[in-house]
Structure formats: structure tokens, C-alpha cells
Amino acid sequence: MGEQKRKEEAKKGYFIFERKNYKFMLIGIAFITLGFILMTGGGSDDPNVFNPEIYSWRRIRLAPALILIGFGIEVYAILLNPHKKK
Q1: What is the number of structural domains in the chain?
Q2: In a domain, 5, yes or no
Q3: Is residue 83 part of a domain?
Q4: In terms of CB atoms within 10 Å, which end of the chain has fewer, N or C?
Q5: C-beta separation of 18 from 35 below 8 A
Q6: Are the C-beta atoms of residues 73 and 34 closer than 8 Å to each other?
Q7: Which pTM was predicted?
């Protein structure tokens, strides 16, 4: 009896994650993308000219922090159990 039930469950096909997990994953991807977008720019067209804008607060502090927060949200989304009862 148990083997038949297991075979039926295998045929159904189901997703590992629920809708809540995917929402958090998309939020995490948005944070990571925003971090990389904020990190771009600041270069110089002429290699002989130094542009101090590459050391701005946005590129050194804000963008990496957003990327790390995004990775943290991704880990949370993977470990989140939507079936857990309170």
C-alpha cells in the first residue's frame, strides 16, 4: 500500500518552493540587481586622468551592502518553509 502511494505522489509532480518563496527570491534578485547598477560608472575615458568618483560612498558602501542584503534574502527564501504552522 505504501509503495503505491509513493508512486502516485511521484507522478503528480510538484514544486519544491511555494509562491511565498518565489516572492522573496524576486525581492532578493531585485536587491542584487540594484546593487550592481549602483556600482557601475565612475570610470574615465582617458587612462591618464584619474577620476576620484570611483571612490564615492555609493560604490564603496551602499552597492555592496545592497548586494549582501540581496544574498541574505535569497538564503532566507530558500530556507523558508511555507507549510510551517504557527
Answers
A1: 1
A2: no
A3: yes
A4: C
A5: no
A6: no
A7: 0.77
